[in-house]
DNA sequence: GCCATTTCCTACTATTATGGTCAGCATACG
DNA sequence: CGTATGCTGACCATAATAGTAGGAAATGGC
């Protein structure tokens, strides 16, 4: 019962983009360095996110990625479902008489995922980094 | 993001035991037939359940298993955690700044699992089998 | 005592998902 | 033109899952 690194790294990637948002696009290389992730692997993760319209890319030298929507309008659910496919607690069309339980679980999980936006994650991460940066 | 068959078959097994509870112990063979599962595989699943004290066994001919506790006192959480180990949404000690999200998810899931007992599953399954059996 | 039944135990194996790596083309800035 | 970056598809190593296989030990019925 795990979130795969696909979903997790994908969120880290988007949070990083959201954090370093500015006029210029952000290169995957810089994200990979900051987050200590493999650039090649991030390339694979961002492809579906681009296709789904969460980020847009700028090719060529000095290119990179930027969020295509406000960070408060991208939910964790969007990202996880895009990267990991539909949430199947148990395989489709099993008939074990416990469908009601699986349905409850699914709802509970999706509720959390859909109540949390990228904006929330940015805030969350800043809090978790603790400490005040004001006087630096 | 799945419940493995370990947890799922384990629940089916216990629900079957709960349903066929009586004076005599219930053999795995009969459970395997009713639920269309492999007897050998069930053996592997019931071992930890026995060790954890949810069922007790009677060896030898005409032996089998029976619940060691009232079915209203065994929660789905007990069973799943026994069979699948601790619920780790993400690997231990990752530091991705999203710990708060993973914690929320974990809580949401465990809440559902711990509010549901074997008794609930028995009722649930009976309802799902639909139809009234009174006049048969 | 013997046989059938059933639990119990230890390996082994096949398949799948995960978590990547590798190689190379495509595009665009300077 | 050269370098930085995006983009794509193929490939691979490891671990987890989902079982199988084979038999030893216990126990009730005959």
Q: Give the low-confidence spans of chain A.
A: none
Mean pLDDT value of chain A: 92
- Tally of extended strands of chain A? 2
What's the alpha carbon Rg of chain A, rounded to whole Å?
Answer: 17 Å
* Helical fraction of chain A: 40-55%
Strand order of the largest sheet of chain A: 1-2
Brief summary:
The structure is a homodimer. Chain A contains 6 helices and 2 strands.
Q: Mind sketching the topology for me?
A:
Two copies of one chain form a homodimer.
Chain A: H1 5-19, H2 28-35, H3 39-51, E1 55-58, E2 64-67, H4 76-84, H5 99-115, H6 118-128
Helix pairs in contact in A: 1-2, 1-3, 1-4, 1-6, 4-5
The first copy, chain A, binds a DNA duplex (30 and 30 nucleotides) through helix 3.
Overall description:
The structure is a homodimer of 136-residue chains. By secondary structure, chain A is mainly alpha-helical. Chain A has one domain (5-128): Winged helix-like DNA-binding domain superfamily/Winged helix DNA-binding domain (Arc Repressor Mutant, subunit A, Orthogonal Bundle). Chain A contains six helices and two strands, in the order H-H-H-E-E-H-H-H. In chain A, strands 1-2 form a two-stranded antiparallel sheet. In chain A, helix 1 crosses helix 3 and helix 4 packs across helix 5. In chain A, 30% of the residues are buried. The mean pLDDT of chain A is 92. The A-B interface holds A 1-3, 8, 11-12, 15, 76, 84, 87-91, 94, 96-102, 104-105, 108-109, 111-113, 116, 121, 124-125, 127-129 and B 1-3, 8, 11-12, 15, 76, 84, 87-91, 94, 96-102, 104-105, 108-109, 111-113, 116, 121, 124-125, 127-129. The structure holds a DNA duplex (30 and 30 nucleotides).
């Amino acid at each position: 019962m795990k979130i795969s690194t696909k979903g997790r790294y994908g969120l880290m990637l988007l949070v990083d983009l959201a954090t370093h948002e500015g006029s210029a696009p952000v290169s995957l290389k810089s994200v990979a360095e900051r987050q200590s992730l493999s650039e090649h692997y991030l390339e694979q993760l961002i492809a579906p996110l681009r296709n789904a319209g969460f980020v847009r890319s700028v090719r060529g030298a000095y290119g990179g990625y930027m969020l295509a929507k406000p960070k408060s309008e991208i939910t964790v659910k969007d990202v996880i479902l895009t990267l990991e496919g539909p949430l199947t607690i148990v395989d489709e069309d099993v008939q074990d008489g416990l469908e009601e339980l699986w349905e409850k679980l699914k709802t509970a999980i999706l509720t959390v995922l859909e109540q949390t936006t990228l904006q929330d994650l940015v805030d969350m991460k800043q809090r978790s980094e603790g400490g005040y940066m004001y006087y630096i």
